[in-house]
Design a protein that fits this description.
Layout (H helix, E strand, L loop, with lengths): L1 H22 L1 H18 L3 E4 L2 E4 L2 H18 L1 H27 L9 H8 L3 H28 L5 H25 L6 H20 L11 H14 L2
Helix pairs in contact: 1-2, 1-3, 2-3, 2-4, 3-4, 3-6, 3-8, 4-6, 6-7, 7-8
Amino acid sequence: MNEILFLIHILLVILFLFVALRLGKNYLLVFAAILALIANLFVIKQIDLFTKTVTATDVFIIGAIFSQNLLQEYFGKEIAIKTIKITFFSMLFFLVMSKIHLLYIPSHLDTTHASFQNILSSSPRIIISSMVAFFLTQRLDIYFFSFLKKIFKAKYLPLRMGISSIVVQSIDTLLFSFLALWGIVDHIFDIILFSFIIKSLVIIFSASFMKLSKYFMKNENKNENENENEKIYE
């Protein structure tokens, strides 16, 4: 059952990704930031997938990276860098506000505080590790994706997105696992390996749809993309 839901989950994220692209770069920027936020919020829920226990956030993480790649592909490196800064600021604000929210003493009539406590009181080590890994790997993704765009002469978008995302996620998985989980969980290398396998499967499956992204571009955005591609070879 989880495997079927996982597939539907991927398809829905891809659908909303294309809708955001169609609406314009600001929508896609916000979409990327939202995906990163909910990935950090939902990371504490564990699910069984292909007989292994994993978190339910890999789809959101890959969706955020693909959103950033499409922003860079069609609107330029500057907007992709801006997206990282806005997303990181949003994550930091959410973290601080979550802690303040938990400090309020609940009313004797309140029945939700325990639930908020369970969801929002994640270990500071895990949260900080996630934010550090996100910021570093997203920056790396921008420069590596730009390098691949030059190598492939702005062709083969699905291949470029797939290669860039797999390389970056291998680093992200290692970085987050060692920063957040070292000394806490057993069999950390098994966790790293299976997490990377799941992310790679999501990337390969999702990247196959990215060729369709050009059909969701408005005409004025296509002109902006053509100007961006010309800059690559100047």
